[in-house]
Amino acid sequence: MLIFEHTTQGRKNIAQAPVVNGEVNDIPAELRRTKSAPLPELSELQVVRHYTRLSQKNFSIDTHFYPLGSCTMKYNPRACNSLAMLPGFLSRHPLAPEKFSQGFMACMYELQEMLCEVTGMSGFSLTPMAGAQGEFAGVAMIRAYHDAKKDFDRKEILVPNAAHGTNPATATMCGYTVKEIPTLDNGDVDLDALKQAVGPQTAGLMLTNPSTLGVFERRIEEIAKTVHQAGGLLYYDGANLNAILGKIRPGDMGFDVIHSNLHKTFSTPHGGGGPGSGAIGVSERLKPFLPLPMVTKENEGYRWLTEKDCPQTIGRLSAFMGNAGVLLRAYIYMRMLGKDGMQRVAEFATLNANYMMAQLKNKGFDVAIPERRASHEFIVTLKKQAKELNVTAMDFAKRLLDLGYHAPTTYFPLLIPECLLIEPTETEARESLDGFIEAMLQIQSEAENDAEFVKGAPYTMPVKRLDEVRAAKQLDLSWVNQS
Amino acid sequence: MPFIPHTEDEICDMLSVIGADSIEQLFDEIPQHLRIKSLQGVPQGLNEMEVSRLMQSRAAEDGQPVCFMGAGSYDHHIPAAVWQITTRGEYYTAYTPYQAEASQGTLQLIYEFQSMMTALTAMDVSNASLYDGASALSEAVLMAVRGNRKSKSRRILVPTNVNPVYRSATKSIVHHQNIELVDVEFDTATGQTTLDALKAYEGEDFAAVVISQPTFFGTLEQVDALTDWAHANGAMLIAVVNPTSLSLLKPPGEWGEQGADIACGDGQPLGAPMSSGGPYYGFMCCKKAHVRQMPGRIVGRTVDQDEKEGFVLTLQAREQHIRRSKATSNICTNQGLVVTASTIYMSLLGPQGLEKVAIACHQNTNQLIEKLSAIKGVDVLFKGSVFHEVVLKLNKPVADVLNALAEKNILGGYDLSNDYPQLDNALLVCATEMRTDEEIDRYAQVLSEIL
Question: Domain range for residue B115?
Answer without folding.
Answer: 82-343
